[in-house]
């Protein structure tokens, strides 16, 4: 039987438009992208763009503190018409039943090389078991994590998760069951008026144990938008057709925004490459759109060439974009690498290596090349007048051998030397300091690593006259 409050996203948005706003919304389902997209649409429907500045509080599940959230939920809005508290990836509906599914999802993400997500889910599962430090996990706990999969597959996943957490010095995400506490706060009865009328709580999650009291309370007083119900008691062919239709609809919207269209067979080729994960599908489609630039039609050959590139390709392109100070492409390749499961610490190290190479290139021009350097020269002239003469001098120990950039191929070295002209030496040393500070923030704050990485790229890629003194809220 369908829940009475499972009225669907469109109906919920229509009600909000007609000033019928619920105190609590739960958006859940199997596809994280759709859940978060629906949650964002609810936020934008309830709060105007102006009110979102002061009337919106957004919390990620890794950082949810329900004592503070409930306190804020019970506080009347002061400077905006309404207040919305949105909790993404909330763990408040978790139970042992849900955690078993989370472990399986972590294994799946691990097998698909999405290490960041695999590790995040692993940390949630371990935190649910009340483990405070990865290093203190007993054999009993390890067996509990593998209760449904004691195979070589399960052991490999567990060992990799533990090793990576220890290497990055990251610990379990703490879990405390606050579902009954929240249920009492939002419940409307003779003893409780519920939360203030102008306040709204939006909960977004993939994992829900529908047996929890909180779930039943929200069904009574709020709205549940459950995307997973559409798949209930459907055969696999129906599910595949429906998921393909959803992907096509989202793709059409994105293509329209960018004045692009699919050529014959391109959509099917992309689905075959990405599977039915909405997030992966749209990330890859954005990559293709950005790569074909002014051309309108996306062909099958574009999909074959651009989708499923290796991490090494993306890491090289990220460093290339940094050298050009191309913020759009740098953030694009950062997103691509994170989607491929690359660690945030590894990516920060890649950025640091590129900055050090640029420093070395600048120093080499100033101390060794001097008036021999001409940034307009082509690669053949560079090899003839700079590269091979310098290699000869290095072998005869006429110049110091500390310039490790000489291990680069001539065309790559020439590009590096040219890119160094996009920066001053003071800027480059400032960026090294910035990277060190970011590394410290990774390990000592709860700020999302992706936001910290984006801030680094933002500072590096801004034009010279603008790159100092820029502040991003919270950083």
- Say what the CATH topology of the largest domain is: Rossmann fold
What's the domain count? 4
What is the CA-atom radius of gyration, in angstroms? 26 Å
Low-confidence stretches: 1-6, 464-475
Total count of strands: 7
Dominant shape? globular
Mean pLDDT: 81
Helix content: 55-70%
Q: How do the helices and strands follow one another from N- to C-terminus?
A: HEHHEHEHHHHHEHEHEHHEHHHHHHHH
Terminus-to-terminus distance: 48 Å
| SS class | alpha/beta
Q: Could you give me the name of the CATH homologous superfamily of the largest domain? A: P-loop containing nucleotide triphosphate hydrolases
Which percent band covers the strand fraction? 5-15%
As laid out across the biggest beta sheet, the strand order is: 2-3-4-1-5
Q: Could you give a short account of the major beta sheet?
A: 5 strands, parallel
Please tally the helical runs, counting DSSP H or I stretches of 4 or more residues: 21
CATH class descriptor of the largest domain: Alpha Beta
CATH-scheme architecture of the largest domain: 3-Layer(aba) Sandwich
Descriptive account of the structure:
- The protein is an alpha/beta fold and 475 residues long.
- The chain folds into four domains: 9-93 and 177-231, P-loop containing nucleotide triphosphate hydrolases (Rossmann fold, 3-Layer(aba) Sandwich); 96-168, no CATH class; 236-306, Helicase, Ruva Protein, domain 3; 344-466, no CATH class.
- 58% of the residues lie in helices and 7% in strands.
- It is built from 21 helices and seven strands.
- It has helices spanning 9-17, 32-46, 49-55, 66-73, 96-111, 115-128, 139-145, 152-168, 179-186, 213-221, 236-257, 266-274, 278-292, 300-306, 311-324, 327-339, 344-369, 379-395, 410-420, 425-444, 449-461; strands at 24-28, 56-60, 83-88, 199-205, 223-226, 261-262, 297-298.
- It has a five-stranded parallel sheet with strand order 2-3-4-1-5, with helices on both faces.
- Strand 2, helix 4 (66-73) and strand 3 (83-88) form a beta-alpha-beta unit.
- Helix 5 runs antiparallel to helix 6 (115-128) and helix 13 packs antiparallel against helix 16 (327-339).
- The longest helix has 26 residues, at 344-369.
- It is globular and about 85 Å long.
- The model is unreliable at 1-6 and 464-475 (pLDDT under 50).
């Amino acid at each position: 039987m369908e829940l009475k409050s499972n009225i669907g996203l469109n109906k919920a948005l229509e009600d909000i438009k007609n000033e019928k706003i619920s105190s609590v919304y739960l958006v859940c389902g199997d596809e994280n992208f759709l859940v978060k997209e629906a949650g964002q649409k609810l936020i934008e429907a309830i709060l105007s763009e102006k009110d979102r500045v002061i009337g919106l509080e957004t919390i990620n599940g890794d950082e949810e503190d329900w004592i503070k959230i409930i306190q804020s939920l019970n506080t009347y809005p002061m400077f905006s018409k309404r207040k919305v508290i949105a909790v993404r990836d909330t763990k408040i509906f978790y139970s042992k039943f849900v955690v078993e599914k989370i472990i399986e999802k972590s294994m799946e993400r691990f097998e698909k090389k999405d290490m960041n997500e695999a590790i995040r889910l692993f940390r949630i599962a371990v935190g649910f078991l009340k483990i405070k430090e990865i290093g203190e996990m007993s054999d009993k706990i390890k067996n509990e994590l593998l209760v449904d999969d004691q195979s070589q597959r399960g052991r490999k996943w567990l060992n990799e998760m533990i090793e990576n957490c220890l290497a990055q010095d990251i610990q379990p995400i703490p879990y405390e069951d606050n579902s009954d506490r929240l249920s009492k706060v939002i419940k409307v009865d003779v003893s409780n008026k519920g939360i203030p009328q102008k306040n709204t709580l939006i909960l977004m999650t993939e994992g829900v144990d529908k047996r929890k009291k909180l779930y039943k309370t929200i069904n009574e007083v709020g709205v549940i938008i459950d995307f997973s119900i559409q798949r209930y008691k459907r055969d696999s062919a129906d599910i595949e057709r429906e998921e393909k239709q959803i992907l096509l609809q989202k793709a059409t919207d994105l293509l329209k925004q960018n004045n692009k269209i699919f050529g014959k067979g391109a959509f099917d080729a992309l689905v075959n490459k990405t599977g039915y994960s909405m997030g992966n599908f749209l990330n890859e489609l954005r990559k293709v759109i950005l790569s074909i630039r002014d051309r309108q039609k996306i062909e099958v050959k574009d999909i074959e060439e651009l989708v499923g590139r290796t991490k090494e390709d993306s890491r090289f392109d990220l460093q290339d974009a940094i050298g050009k100070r191309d913020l759009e492409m740098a953030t694009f390749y950062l997103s691509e690498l994170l989607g491929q499961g690359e660690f945030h610490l590894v990516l920060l190290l890649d950025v640091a290596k590129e900055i050090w190479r640029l420093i070395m290139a600048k120093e080499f021009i100033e101390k060794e090349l001097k008036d021999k350097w001409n940034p307009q020269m082509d690669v053949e002239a560079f090899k003839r007048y700079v590269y091979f003469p310098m290699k000869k001098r290095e072998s005869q120990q006429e110049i110091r051998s500390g310039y490790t950039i000489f291990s680069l191929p001539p065309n790559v070295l020439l590009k590096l030397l040219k890119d160094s002209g996009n920066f001053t030496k003071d800027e480059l040393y400032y960026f090294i300091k910035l990277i060190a500070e970011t590394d410290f923030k990774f390990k000592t704050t709860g700020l999302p690593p992706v936001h910290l990485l984006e801030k680094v790229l933002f500072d590096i890629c801004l034009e010279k006259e603008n790159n100092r003194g820029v502040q991003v809220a919270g950083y």
